Amino acid sequence: MKPFRVVGKPQPRLDGPETVTGRAAYTVDVLLPGMLHAKLFRSSVAHAKIRRLDASRARLLTGVAAVLTASDVPRKRFGFTVQDEELFAGEKARYIGDVIAAVAAEDEETAEAALTLIDCDYEELPAALSPDEALKENAPLIHEDFDSYRLNDVLARSWHPVAGTNIAHQAVYSRGNIDQGFTEADETFDDRFTSQQVQHCSLEPHAVVARWDGERLTLWTSTQKVFLVRSGLADLFDLPEEKIRVIGSKIGAGFGGKNAMRLEPYAAALALKTGKPVRLINSRAEEFAAAAGSVPATVRVKTGVKRDGTITARAMEFIWDTGAYAEGLPGSNRALKDGVGPYKIANLRVTSTLVYTNKLRGCPFRGLGIPEAVWAGESQMDIIAAKLGIDPVALRLKNCLDTGDETPAGDRANHIALRQCLLKVSKELKRWKKRAPSDHGFGVALIHKSPTTSAASSKALLRIRADAGVELMIGATDVGGGTGTSLGQIAAEELGMAPTDIRVVIADTELTPFDHGTYSSRVTAYVGAAVKLAATDARRQLIEASARLWNLSPDKLRIEGKKVVASGRRSMTYGEVIKNSKLAEILGSGSFESKRLWAGDAASNKQDSAAAGWPFGAQAVEVKIDRETGVIKLVRVASAHDVGKAINPMAVTGQIQGGIAMGLGYALFEGLQFEAGKVANASFADYKIATACDMPGAAPMIVEKLYASEPYGAKGVGEMSIFGIAPAIANAIASLTGKRIKDLPMSAEKLFEQLKQTAK
Hints:
The chain is of the alpha+beta class. The strands form eight sheets. The protein has a seven-stranded mixed sheet, with helices on both faces. Strand 22 (557-560) and strand 23 form a beta hairpin. Helix 6 crosses helix 7. The longest helix has 28 residues, at 523-550. The relative contact order is 0.12.
């Protein structure tokens, strides 16, 4: 294989200068003539019937253009996966933050004033504020109309609600004989772990501007999925999709929180009503209290092992708190195939139960259910190692997947460097331990994530104009990770040019081809494959057109330095080829779609057994513990990742470091606090995230192998480095102090209480 010229080389972001100088335009920067400003009237109670709603005084306020309630819009449901939400709560509010009315006014102050003039009379109902409460026999039902709901099958395949309960979804996946596996075990471990609900904390809040000109609805929005916003709005407002344009503005992070329609329907409804542009932006308090958070889980892990450490069986039970709406469905389903970890386990059973509560909704969060699973599974691996007297690294090496092994999901692991990753971080651990003070502890964890299967279609177009300008058009958004740059490198590699020679057009339903969006670490593997195919197609057309002009066989031609070259002929630039061929342009196209279903799906077949693109990795940590206060300081992290081929090592390293920071917050101090269903810490003053002062010394390790998958064997890495930080820290704490923390976050107070009990 010839060496790469562009791929695999560190490439500064193409949009870097405009981003750091403030020239980049986010949704909040979109200003249109005559634009109205919108605000939302939200429920102040967790669970209540709406007895009376009077918006007459708000409508009469000078400067108010429109006030919309449930009686002003069609009664249609929408939803990210399960369509269980109406545009406005008309009969019942299901959590503090449920939208009851929307106001559009000449300025924000007037819109805010109008909200205070809306009178809502509630009949409060008993609220179920935790899964334990919601699962009780006589618990108040949060959704009584399951029979009228339907699945948004564009995004989800499996939905099994339990009628007459608050169980939004329940599914079981098993392989082998779980009872026999536990019978064969010499030791059985049974532990319960909990995780908290965290907020995505994107620095840019949800924002949208909508304009209706009488014929066409246009939105500028901060979303991870422009095409799914378009289809959702078309369904909600009975508009043809061709009459809706969704433009993905530059995004100040998403982390899964901008997957679903959040503000778009309200801005669209107000624009349709008033005929004027409407701007709607969440306040930071609304981001915390009413947008969405992660889907917290209680996880029970039961594992059977032989005395030599061989795992004979593992059973896991997940109970997820999805809040008032079922956006937690994707993560609860992914736990079925990814929950048990990257190990060779012949006998397993996973039960996943998604529960409605009267709280802030949960939605996909960086990793889609995997952080909660890895927290539980990798914590227990060290519990097992301690009891059996086996080194934690050795226990993992004995059981971890290797090339050709069958994964717990039933796939064949043909593209895997997990052992290499573990050995790399193990080497760092040994080096750290040689010079560590006595108050330092060490821990390790394995990380993994199965590739996105269904609903993973991507297309790309590459246009070469007669003036030799090159445009790459992709429908996926760039949520801050440098998507446009990495994809531009792929196109540049195939066309013999520099990434800076390519203009990348991103996420505009009118200008770019269809894409399912940016989520689940899928962009490099899926969009990247489509881009490579589009660039290869454009290159083929260039060579064939040149061959016709020169009357040569195409195999005598080659691409070199933005020119087509043949022996004995004067080379032609791309522009010359197009002009001399009397073409307007060359347009290459490529598409990549996974029709593969994971092995546990009843509709799967034998062709579904080989899965490229499984990301694997390992993480090791060194922590410092103050026994007098319980304060835990993350000192160092080694994070090794099986990436296949790093398209842009600079971007890969940045993603690893960003994930470590997020994993640190998730592990030690982040968490939404609720008081009677209301978020009590709805600001950065009260909700702590990791800052530069908290960051450890980080050693990102890129492990590359040449895999037979496109593009160039590359895998996604955007989520992985968050997964193992929490269990590795817990394992380090336990190895140093003998104290095992099983509930996140691992605050100083929790550790201090455990240490104090020992002192007594």
